[in-house]
């Protein structure tokens, strides 16, 4: 395995041109760095794979194996798609993996900065970076792990409760320098390959959302902390594949992932407590909304939480440590 070699993975689902734009930024950011870029289609079924294969070859990216276009063959979600790319052998064995969203665009020095930080701090298992929007606005992408207390605070959204539970608020202030965090979002997340092999990659029971939270938690339990590096940046549009900006209520798979996270990592009783805490917070918020004639209350959220809390446990289908390239 080459020390400091980087395997960049970009997962596409029905957004070929956006993914190619992300790949172009990755090609530039990988200049002078040993490694490979995997642009993998997650069984889009819309011609994305053929389009990306053709354009990548036309642009000269596939020459010499610098970039490869892959097909997962099955849309099992975000984690499953990235696991599929990890299973395909590479000509350049890499000890660092960089997960990049298809609507995220690395700055030219982002990979070099993240790589240097990981090499200088071998005890770090995962590394997130600063994420900004199209207009330079900061996106919070470094967090504390969710708890029953954070569920209450997040649902209530009221000053007194937030102040009381300040140490449990999931979002964290922006650190001025590199610092440890509980978990970092997968818009651009660097992971040691040894960590993925040790803990089993992404848990494929998550279709979308909570998979990187779960990954960071399992890594932390295995002795591999996550850090956040504000000096490395990526521009992220967000929600291109998921349509999240148009949500009035998260889809079923968000609630299913949330429930799976709490059950798997804390047990069923704690998962029930987290639901009850969230419902209590929603009650507080609803009372405040009635007084203020607030029309922004999410409709159907309580029903969705209860429905998924009563559902049977989801089966786990994870990346096998033995499937290492």
Short structural description:
Helices cover 39% and strands 20% of the residues. The protein is an alpha/beta fold and 325 residues long.
Tell me what the structure shows:
- This is Glycosyltransferase family 2 protein.
- InterPro entries: Nucleotide-diphossugar_trans (IPR029044).
- Keywords: Transferase.
- One of its GO terms (molecular function) is transferase activity.
- The chain is an alpha/beta fold and about 325 residues long.
- Helices cover about 40% and strands about 20% of the residues.
- It has helices at about 15-30, 50-60, 80-85, 110-120, 150-155, 160-165, 195-200, 210-220, 250-265, 270-290, 300-310, and strands spanning about 1-10, 35-40, 65-70, 95-100, 105, 125-130, 140, 140-145, 180, 185, 190, 225-235.
- Strand 2, helix 2 and strand 3 form a beta-alpha-beta unit.
- Helix 9 crosses helix 10 and helix 10 (about 270-290) runs antiparallel to helix 11 (about 300-310).
- The longest helix is centred in the C-terminal third of the chain and has 25 residues, at about 270-290.
- The chain is globular.
């Amino acid at each position: 395995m080459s020390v400091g070699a980087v395997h960049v993975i970009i997962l596409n689902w029905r957004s070929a041109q956006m993914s190619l734009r992300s790949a172009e930024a990755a090609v530039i950011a990988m200049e002078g760095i040993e490694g490979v870029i995997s642009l993998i289609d997650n069984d889009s079924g819309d011609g994305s794979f053929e389009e990306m294969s053709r354009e990548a070859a036309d642009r000269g990216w596939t020459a010499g194996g610098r970039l490869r276009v892959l097909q997962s063959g099955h849309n099992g979600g975000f984690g499953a798609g990235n696991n599929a790319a990890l299973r395909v052998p590479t000509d350049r064995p890499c000890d660092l993996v960089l997960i990049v969203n298809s609507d995220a665009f690395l700055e030219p020095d982002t990979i070099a900065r993240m790589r240097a930080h990981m090499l200088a701090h071998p005890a770090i298992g995962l590394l997130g970076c600063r994420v900004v929007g199209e207009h330079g606005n900061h996106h919070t992408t470094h967090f504390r792990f969710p708890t029953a207390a954070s569920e209450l605070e997040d649902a209530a959204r009221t000053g007194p409760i937030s102040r009381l539970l300040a140490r449990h608020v999931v979002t964290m202030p922006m650190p001025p320098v590199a610092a440890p965090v509980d978990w970092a979002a997968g818009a651009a997340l660097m992971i040691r390959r040894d960590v993925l092999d040790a803990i089993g990659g992404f848990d494929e029971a998550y279709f979308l959302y909570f998979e990187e939270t779960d990954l960071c938690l399992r890594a932390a339990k295995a002795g591999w902390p996550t850090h956040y590096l504000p000096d490395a940046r990526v521009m992220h549009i967000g929600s291109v594949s998921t349509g999240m900006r148009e949500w009035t209520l998260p889809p079923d798979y968000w609630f299913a992932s949330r429930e799976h996270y709490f059950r798997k990592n804390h047990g069923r009783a704690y998962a029930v407590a987290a639901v009850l805490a969230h419902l209590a917070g929603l009650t507080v918020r609803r009372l405040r909304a009635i007084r203020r004639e607030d029309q922004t209350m999410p409709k159907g959220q309580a029903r969705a939480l209860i429905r998924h809390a009563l559902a049977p446990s989801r089966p786990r289908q994870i990346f096998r440590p033995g499937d290492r390239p």
